Amino acid sequence: MTTAPPALTRLDQSARTSRRYFLAGEGLGHAGACVHGIALPALAVLQLDASPGQAALLSFAATIPALVVSLPAGVLLGRYPLRTVMITTDIASATVVLAIPAAALLDSLSMPLLYAIALVAGSLATLRKAAAMAAVPLLADKEQLHRSNAQFTRVITTAGIVGRTLGTVLITLAGPARTLIADAVSLILSACCASRVQGLPLPDRAVRRPMHEEIREGLTYAGRDPVLRPLVVALTATSVGSALTTTLLPYHLLTTLKTGTTGLGMVMAAGSVGGLTGAFIAPRLVRRFGSGPVLTTGFCLHAVVQIPLLFAAAGPAWLIVLILAACGQYAAATVVGTTQRSVQQWHTPPELRTRVQQTALWLGTGLMPLAALAAGALATLTSVRIVMALGILVLIVAAGALSCSPIRALTSRDETTGAAQ
Predict the structure, then answer these.
(1) By the 8 A CB rule, do 407 and 336 touch?
(2) N or C: which end of the chain has fewer CB within 10 A?
């Protein structure tokens, strides 16, 4: 019987410890972000009597950084140590967030202050998220990359459930301004965990080119690679279609379907359960069927299970249908999300990985605020059901196009010999 050399054992233990600290920090930070996501709009509405337009502008300020910051973030992450980026953005975000309870204590809260904080915090969060996603493949064993992505998603999904629950309770007990202290504490704890992460390589100190050239290189690679191009196009179309359906979903449930806040909460909770389920089953599905079939089937299911929204009416039977549909929708979305992220990492050279990652995020999440604004405008001109039908149609077309692309033939063997290995 042979045993591993002591040096290798210590290295493996150090890697496992780093992964545990990394996942703990991500869970803490995301739970705080969910508290923030509930407390900030509650503060605007409950204490500052924000109008619907002001509430929409606050949401826009928080989400527009995904469009503006994502591409530069891909370049910056290739220039600065990831651990330094994670620690710095956590501490900076905590400082920014604490300005809100401080302003409340001084009786100087205002909507312009909330807009500014939402914009700055959103920019820091976009950079922080990019750094975390870039760290996952660097901390993972190459043979277990998809499992590591799925584990990361499970932690984030669980933290989201905990954070939203905690945020609701804290707002009731302490008010929205004081609740944001919990977000700041979570960010400081996240920074402490990030400081314990080892094994992340330092960036290449070669001569740096202008940022726009490096951004263009990432865009070009994603646009020309025969595997990544159809995947990025499908993700972009799916993000637009999803924004058209989900932006108006709470309004549709509360007004047309008369579900009440309890029904709305049940549908949202079912989505969280579905997302957690998807994160657990994604690696097993890929091992059994390969990434191509999982991606094409997942995109199709994500579109099809939303069709009941177009025909639903008020009543408990339809509410049960919508709860099941939400569970299936988010399970499919999570399976697709973890799988496509692994495929991107497998098929992208390490020196381009962060830029390609951010290209996909820019085309996906970056367009969602604009698509959400378009959904509101179209609903004003037509109806909520027509906008949702348009969104579902976009989802179906995206899934069909992906099914006709080279993605459908991807297998596990293709992935283990990808460009990133």
Answers:
(1) no
(2) N
Residue 136: which of 337, 312, 399, 387 has the closest Cα?
337
CB distance 134 to 357 below 8 Å:
yes
Secondary structure string (H, E, C) spanning the chain? CCCCCHHHHHHHHHHHHHHHHHHHHHHHHHHHHHHHHHHHHHHHHHCCCCCHHHHHHHHHHHHCHHHHCHHHHHHHCCCCCHHHHHHHHHHHHHHHHHHHHHHHHCCCCCHHHHHHHHHHHHHHHHHHHHHHHHHHHHHCCHHHHHHHHHHHHHHHHHHHHHHHHHHHHHHHHHCHHHHHHHHHHHHHHHHHHHHCCCCCCCCCCCCCCCHHHHHHHHHHHHHHCCCHHHHHHHHHHHHHHHHHHHCCHHHHHHHHCCCHHHHHHHHHHHHHHHHHHHHHHHHHHHHHHCHHHHHHHHHHHHHHCCHHHHCCCCCHHHHHHHHHHHHHHHHHHHHHHHHHHHHHHHCCCHHHHHHHHHHHHHHHHHHHHHHHHHHHHHHHHCCHHHHHHHHHHHHHHHHHHHHCCHHHHCCHHHHHCCCCC
Structure tokens at 344: 């991107």
Q: Tokens representing 209? A: 């080119």
- Tokens 């951010």 correspond to 358
d(CA 109, CA 305): 43
State pLDDT tens for residues 200-230: 777 765 557 788 788 888 888 888 888 888 9
pLDDT by residue (tens digit) across 264-289?
A: 778 877 888 888 898 888 888 988 88
Q: Which residues, at least 6 apart from 306, have a Cβ–Cβ distance to it below 8 Å?
A: 245, 325, 329, 388, 391, 392, 395
Q: Determine the Cα–Cα distance for residues 412 and 291; give it in Å rounded to an integer.
A: 7
Q: Side chain identity at 178, as an amino acid letter?
A: R
In angstroms, rounded to a whole number, what is the distance separating the alpha carbons of residues 200 and 25? 15
